[in-house]
Amino acid sequence: MKAPLHIALALVTVTLPAIGARRNADAVQSSFLYAIDDGAGRRSTGWAALTWEPKNSELFLVANGVVDIFNDNGLATYSFGDDAQVGSPVAVAALENGDLMVVASREMATLLLRCNFRGEPQATVELRGLPAEFAGFSPNAIGVAAGKIYLADKNAMRVVVTEPDGAVVKTYELAKLIGLGPKDPAEAMMRGFNVDRDGNLLFTVASVFSAYVVSPEGKVRAFGQKGSSPGKFNIVSGIAADEDGRLFITDSLRAVVMVFDPSFQFLGEFGYRGPDPENLVSPFNLAVGNGRVYVTQSRGAVKAFAVRFD
Amino acid sequence: MKTTFRTMLYGIAAAAFALAPKAYAFHSGGVAECEGCHTMHNTRGSGKAVPLAAGVGNGAKYLLQGSDQSSTCLNCHNSADVAPSSYHISTDDSMFTMVGADANVADKSPVEMTPGGDFGWVKVTRTFKVRGTPTTVEGQGRGHSIVASDYGYAADTSNTLAPGGTYPATSLACSSCHDPHGKYRRFADGTYATTGLPIFGSGSYGTSVDPVANVSAVGAYRILGGVGYQPKSVTGNFAFANGNPTAVAPSTYNRSEATGGQTHVAYGKGMSEWCANCHTAMLENSYASGVSGHRHPAGSGAKLTAAIVTNYNSYVSSGIMTNTDPNRAYSTLAPFELGTADYTVLKPLAINTDTKDQSASATANVTCLSCHRAHASAFEYGTRFFLENEFMTIADASNAAVYDSSTTEGKINNGLNVAEQTNAYYGRPATAFGPNARNLCNKCHAKD
What we know:
- By secondary structure, chain A is mostly beta strands.
- In chain A, 5% of the residues lie in helices and 45% in strands.
- Chain B is globular, with a radius of gyration of 23 Å.
- At the A-B interface, helix 1 of A face helix 1, helix 2, strand 1, helix 3 and helix 8 of B.
């Protein structure tokens, strides 16, 4: 009786089918701007975590236990982490008042720290009101929208929404929500997570070649089609939205950044493997804002692109 | 009609989700989805999607979607994890400190804990002092240095040939050991071939399906290459002479062993012989104590002696030889082969709890994997424990076991901080070994 139940779940939750990618490739014009150099010689930061902070037009790059902050010209302006107080930052997001919420790893445990704008820890935030089934929740991604903190445990496919003081206001079991079967969620390959400014959860699941948008009310919209031609998903990875709701999605295997409009219409893609500045090597995480797209790669520096839409 | 069409698509999507456990599988014991690794026509509009020039980000040999074979594998098997997860065998560069000095408290190391280990360790080079003398342990000595240029893995420059053999380090790839097309299959009678019957599923796990005579085969353990296997990319005569090893693993195998039990891989038979396909001279089935010129025993004929069996099963921790519980005898930090190819014996033992008798016996034998991890580890030579020093732990002021946290003397901690040492032992706290624990050579040899 398991299969019919799953079918029912999927019918309820998947409100938009995985339609074929319709190409309107000329709708996106991209140009390579620069590769980020943190000034410390770390030219390769791998699949670093990226966060765009729109208020001050800053990019937060988290790699190797350090948070580096860059202005929108790609110049490093500040750095913190790499000490016993913070531990090793894993992901960071900025609150409206400039405080930083930092997911950090310390002594084999994952912590949520509230830091001031200098990255100095002000408090360790304990999650309060976490459901019993979320025991062992270990976030590895973070987002902020409308003053709420969104913590994602991509391996467990779980999201916890909290107030900045740690009071849990909502939880999501993403695997159940999208109708995945009972197997270990870690094997589903949830690779990308983000939250847009309206509080929609954005995430990708590579094993089912799909991207998802979950509204604050829990309404699921899914899209994506397996394949290796433009607009299709091969190993779908990072996801982020711009100010107009366009979705930017990386495919690590196809080495591209794909762009979709808010109704999931494919607008175009850029990147591709190769030796040229605009090429990418296994791209993963994304940050998008102010007409710019920042992309991490398995090898090499974060690359910045300008994008324009006709 | 649109609604009907959409409804149909919902149904298709729903059916796919309903079959999700199957859908997760990529290799499924044999050849995977062609498009998962290859670009068929290498097209990008009117141009080529992957240029022909060599170098990071290029590639296109064999129409691969990576700069080289291993880079293609790591598109899925590399991960920016903070804890062990799924089938990841390589922690992403962004998550750890590759070069550190004097046990920096903030240094951070690879996190994956598969039985084979995390390749990320081969990038971890640490400099520290031993009795005041600066000492460097290079990452490349911590395991198999696969070449994966998209992910920052380079060939070993110290061992340019396989120790005990001649396989070139510059050609070392995931595909040196694992047949990417998974052609080697096991039949119901235990024999292997590359054709004969269709592969119905993985043969790697305790929960795997069994092959059915004249109907189906299962994939070889970890889709390893078997007799005659030689990657197309390697020139010369390196075809495997020895066949696939017999082993099964728990289906969840990348996990901390701090609590809940160990990750019991049931090694059966033939692993050392299989390793000897490249490390030929390391096979030692005829060790004679007191006779010079031998290597440490490793091979199907290297049976545990009665004394070793007694030591192994009674060992609790350093100097304490009082264990009588057969379920607690086995250590995944010093495993052995059971000396059998009987899957009815092996499969029930491939579990994640210490609830079954996997104790040593006279039919068991030493294998290369008794001391080494197949991929890499925190320790030189990819060993499972630190055998370069006598102590794994020390004692604090209250005589409790702790890992050495010294930032000025690295003889014991080898430049690894406490969290890294804990990681190195797959989450085990120092108390799991006891205070002033001598290394785990003593699990068998009891010289402590």
